[in-house]
Design a protein that fits this description.
- There is one protein chain.
- By secondary structure, this protein is mainly beta.
- The chain has two helices and 17 strands.
- The two termini are 37 Å apart.
Length: 246
């Protein structure tokens, strides 16, 4: 991890510019925790209702037509970090990027500002032979733990080989993807969330079909297949994946 104010996370190797103090580690780890999205049940974050107000800008990836009911709009908003709340206008609930309600005294206009979805964070310091030396950050479904190790241990970044867990996620339009690796279970879980009325494909390690990416395809009926695109013979086999329908 680099110096406070320009902190970056490493999962292997050694830090070029180590964080030298517990207070600096706490500041840097807390800053990084703001960008971490832990696993949360849709709809678990809270909302504050504001009558006669508007939230500007559509949330990234949100359908402009919105939803006909409040509950699915709020559930979508909770599951996407770029969403600041929900606005109701002209018969539709839309997910918005804005986080500051602007007063508009129009009949039937209301907004629900997202809140209460912060990632739980805990920080401690001490001597541990099982933790990497200096500043480290661990992420679990329950939250984020920052730790400053005063012992110069030999433990590697990212945990002991064979026990490590790594996960990440992202959004692209109406489709979201999360990938989680569990070394101890020898398992990688890929979860794709998107509309159930169309087929969805997610390619890995490529920016175009011409690069022949390894791709997971979910058809409009929920069948999941593994495909290598842009080859004269398309390889397709059934794989064990988690599929969530929105």
């Amino acid at each position: 991890m680099g110096a406070a104010g320009a902190a970056t996370a490493l999962v292997t190797g050694e830090c070029t510019h180590a964080v030298a103090s517990a207070s600096e580690c706490e500041s840097a780890a807390a800053e990084l925790a703001q960008s971490v999205k832990t696993a949360a049940k849709p709809g678990s974050c809270g909302y504050a209702e504001h009558s006669g107000t508007f939230l500007g800008g559509f949330a990234p990836g949100a359908p402009e037509g919105g939803w006909k009911a409040l509950a699915p709009a709020q559930a979508w908003c909770c599951a996407h970090s770029g969403c600041g709340g929900v606005t109701y206008q002209s018969g539709a609930y839309t997910a918005r990027a804005g986080r500051s309600p602007t007063p508009f005294k129009l009949q039937g206009l209301s907004s629900w500002l997202r809140g209460g979805a912060t990632t739980p964070f805990n920080f401690t310091s001490g001597a541990s032979a099982s933790q990497p030396p200096g500043c480290s950050l661990s992420v679990t479904p329950a939250g984020v733990r920052g730790f400053f190790n005063t012992e110069h241990s030999a433990a590697p970044c990212g945990g002991q080989p064979g026990t490590r867990k790594v996960s990440g996620d992202g959004d692209a339009g109406s489709v979201s993807l999360s990938v989680a690796m569990d070394e101890a279970a020898n398992k990688v879980t890929i979860t794709i969330t998107g509309p159930d009325t169309v087929w969805v494909g997610v390619g890995f390690n490529a920016a175009a079909m011409a690069a022949m990416p390894w791709t997971v395809v979910v058809d409009g009926h929920g069948t999941v297949s593994k495909t290598v695109l842009a080859r004269s013979i398309i390889e397709m086999t059934t794989v064990d994946l988690a599929v969530a329908r929105s």
